[in-house]
User: Which sequence fits this backbone?
């Protein structure tokens, strides 16, 4: 039977929403599922993880070196925890993508990136070519180290009451990497990756001032706000709002693509959205090929009108 | 300071991918190949670091079959001084590539390993991190700014929460993201000059690496198609359509 260890991403004492989706993939694999929390003092995060459905045990590693997640510091600790586990799963966030290969290489196994479906304990689907093809792969013998594509899984519910166990690891930790600072965008809006509604703007917005149209509409319907790569590259919005192959891959119930042409790169990030609404003045824009509902028109007229009628 | 840049030959990003009807892979016959766009950004950064006087030698490295020589020629045209071709005709997965690159990095005594954050064919996003892990050196992935200062570097990373800055001791691995720079357009004289630059061809055995057992491809399929949508003419129709779906 599989014995699965899910690595918990967290910050400021809060468990990241990616963990409950990673757990959903673990449940599809089946078996005993433990969660590892590496922190300075992981008690609060562990308590949140213990409540998630299907978790057998939460392992907490407390170490001052874990104050900020640095892959080269976390990896040796995870390698030590990995003993006895058949699977080590990471969320497919920048945290997991940075960290998982560092663990896989130490365990001398080929990692499986971005699993989007589970066929068996060792057989998974994953996207290649920006999601333009899906490959089914059989993991090599040994520990399965994988990242989980969050947009492909629905978060597990709460209602669990897993045991929390503090463990100590003896791995030597490197000092060659030091955290300097983070410039985080503080936003009161719903988080892009977990929001059920997302409104994204593209190059057609024309300026960061004009993005107000997008923000106002998003606030009216309680949506998170995203952007195309073109809008980010043009400097209208910060990079953490980018939706697409190289930005965030999202799966909201309702997605508005406003003034976005629909480059392959962007479409790779929204394929799992339940309903895609496209508003663009160019009737030939590729976004209309994937949209469930399309409206050709000037976004600066259409969006305020729509906002008024919802 | 010497910098090693890994480059990969991939299906050009403008090509519309077709899955083979037998599900064995994607169509690559008669398809244009180019250097992985993220690796171009890595090459460009290496050249800019040299222009700033931080780097004295740029070595490009790739692993793969004979056709990968074209990719190394592009790297040389960008400005690499020389190139190393680890020739391997079979499939190469990230762990094998990382072991080979780690061995070359060690042998060359390079202080910086630059690579794209992922290749746009397998989208694995693993090799750089694995190189760093195998050598127990620092890594900074998804870089949008690289500042080298003596034996240290400050790297700004694009992460989900925003922009993070790390300080790393060299040697270090830096995987680059889109916004680090805009790669230069290769000019004909540079392409001509690249033809005269040396490419050293070696085998995996020469760096003491064997092909690792990787994942096995069971099948490749096109993604599920979305149901055809509807076009509406007015905002009122749009509101009705959203209401009909129970979305508002």
Assistant:
């Amino acid at each position: 039977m599989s014995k699965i260890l899910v690595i918990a991403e967290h910050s400021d004492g809060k468990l990241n929403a990616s963990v409950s989706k990673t757990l959903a993939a673990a449940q599809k694999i089946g078996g005993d599922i433990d969660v590892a929390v590496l922190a300075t003092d992981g008690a609060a995060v562990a308590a949140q993880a213990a409540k998630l459905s299907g978790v057998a045990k939460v392992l907490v590693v407390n170490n001052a070196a874990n104050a900020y997640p640095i892959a080269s510091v976390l990896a040796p600790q995870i390698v030590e925890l990995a003993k006895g586990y058949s699977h080590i799963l990471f969320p497919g966030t920048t945290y997991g993508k940075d960290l998982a290969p560092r663990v896989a290489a130490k365990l001398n196994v080929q990692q499986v990136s971005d699993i989007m479906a589970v066929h068996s304990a060792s057989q998974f689907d994953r996207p290649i070519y920006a999601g333009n093809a899906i490959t089914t792969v059989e993991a090599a013998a040994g520990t399965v180290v994988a990242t989980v594509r969050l947009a492909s899984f629905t978060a597990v519910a709460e209602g669990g009451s897993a045991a929390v166990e503090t463990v100590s690891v003896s791995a030597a930790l490197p000092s060659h990497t030091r955290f300097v600072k983070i410039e985080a965008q503080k936003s009161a809006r719903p988080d892009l990756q977990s929001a059920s509604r997302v409104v994204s703007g593209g190059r057609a917005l024309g300026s960061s001032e004009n993005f107000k149209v997008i923000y106002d509409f998003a606030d009216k319907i309680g949506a998170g706000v995203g952007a195309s790569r073109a809008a980010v590259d043009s400097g209208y919005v910060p990079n953490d709002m980018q939706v697409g192959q190289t930005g965030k891959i999202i799966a909201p119930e309702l997605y508005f693509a406003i003034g976005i042409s629909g480059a392959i790169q962007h479409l790779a990030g929204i394929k799992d959205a339940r309903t895609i609404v496209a508003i663009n003045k160019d009737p030939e824009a590729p976004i209309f090929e994937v949209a469930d509902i399309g409206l050709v028109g000037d976004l600066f007229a259409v969006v305020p009108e729509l906002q008024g009628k919802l | 300071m010497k910098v090693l840049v890994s480059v990969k030959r991939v299906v050009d990003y403008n090509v519309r991918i077709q899955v083979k009807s037998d599900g064995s892979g994607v169509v690559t016959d008669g398809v244009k190949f180019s250097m992985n766009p993220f690796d171009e950004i890595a090459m460009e950064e290496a050249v800019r670091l040299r222009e700033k006087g931080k780097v004295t030698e740029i070595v490009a490295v790739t692993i793969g079959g004979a056709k990968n020589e074209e990719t190394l020629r592009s790297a040389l045209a960008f400005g690499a001084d020389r190139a190393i071709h680890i020739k391997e005709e079979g499939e190469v997965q990230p762990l094998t590539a990382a072991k080979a690159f780690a061995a070359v990095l060690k042998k060359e005594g390079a202080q910086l390993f630059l690579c794209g954050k992922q290749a746009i064919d397998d989208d694995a996003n693993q090799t750089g991190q694995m190189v760093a892990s195998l050598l127990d050196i620092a890594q900074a992935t998804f870089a949008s700014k690289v500042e080298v200062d003596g034996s240290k570097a400050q790297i700004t990373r694009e992460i989900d929460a925003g922009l993070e800055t790390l300080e790393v001791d060299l040697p270090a691995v830096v995987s680059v993201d889109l916004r680090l720079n805009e790669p230069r357009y290769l000019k004909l004289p540079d392409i001509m000059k690249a033809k005269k630059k040396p490419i050293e061809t070696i085998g995996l055995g020469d760096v003491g690496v064997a092909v690792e057992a990787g994942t096995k491809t069971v099948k490749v399929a096109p993604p599920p198609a979305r149901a055809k949508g509807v076009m509406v003419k007015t905002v009122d129709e749009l509101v009705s359509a959203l209401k009909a779906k129970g979305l508002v």
The first helix of chain A runs from residue 18 to 29. Chain A touches chain B through 83 residues (CB under 8 Å).
